[in-house]
Amino acid sequence: MDLYYHIIPPPSRAVLVLSKKLNITLNLISIDTRDANEMAILTKVNPLQSLPTLIDDGQVIGESHTVLIHLTSLFDKEGTLYPVDLKIRSVINELLFFDTNMYKCFVLFAMPTVIKRQDPNHDMLEKLLVCVKALDNYLRERVYAAGDHFTLADLSLAHTISSLDVIKVKLSDYPNVERWMTKVLPEMPQFEEFQVRAEEALSTFLAKQYGAKCI
User: Fold this and answer.
1) Which of 5, 35, 178, 188 has the fewest beta carbons under 10 Å from its own?
2) Where are the domains of the chain?
3) What is the mean pLDDT of residues 194-200?
4) DSSP per residue over 162-175, as a string?
5) CDD domains from the xrefs (predicted)?
6) Is the whole-model pTM more than 0.90?
7) The dihedral formed by the CA atoms of 159, 164, 90 and 79, expressed in degrees to the nearest 10
8) Nearest to 161 by CA among 126, 135, 192, 199
9) For the structural domain made of 2-78, what CATH number should be given?
10) 86-190, what's its fold?
11) Count helices and strands in the chain by DSSP H and E runs
């Protein structure tokens, strides 16, 4: 299976971590979204230009949550990450949709502010923080996001939350989220390794773009 990805965005890293957790061998194809030739390659494979995009026996699967569910359905022999129980799945699905909205708010704030060095969009930041606060309230009496064990909901949400450091949002302001992150991090193989690679790639980009040495 081929995986087209970019190391900086959290959705791609979530799929990479899942592949390590389930011992899935993927042919990794890194796409530089600023390179017209590489984007042409991605567009030929997936006209929607989704990253990550998975190719499984000719089937094109885009959007990280869809990829996570597909790989889990194939390789999670224990059936714990995306259980067949429809009640549990409904909770996981709700949280994955919530994660999509939260990540969208993050991108719409971070892209102009961090990447393009434009003035901060305080309205979008407020929308993002509303999402983080909602998650903090949701996790108040929960160890894991959905049910009594680690699931795809934890995996996906954790990657979005981990990116808040880029825009200087302190997890200490959200104690339930901070506690939950401490709990789920050991469940994600090579999470920190991929996180470091993403930070280095972003720093390199900013250095080339603006002469900045750090995020």
Assistant:
1) 35
2) 2-78, 86-190
3) 90
4) HGGGGGT--GGGSH
5) GST_C_Delta_Epsilon
6) yes
7) 20
8) 135
9) 3.40.30.10
10) Glutathione S-transferase Yfyf (Class Pi); Chain A, domain 2 (1.20.1050)
11) 8, 4
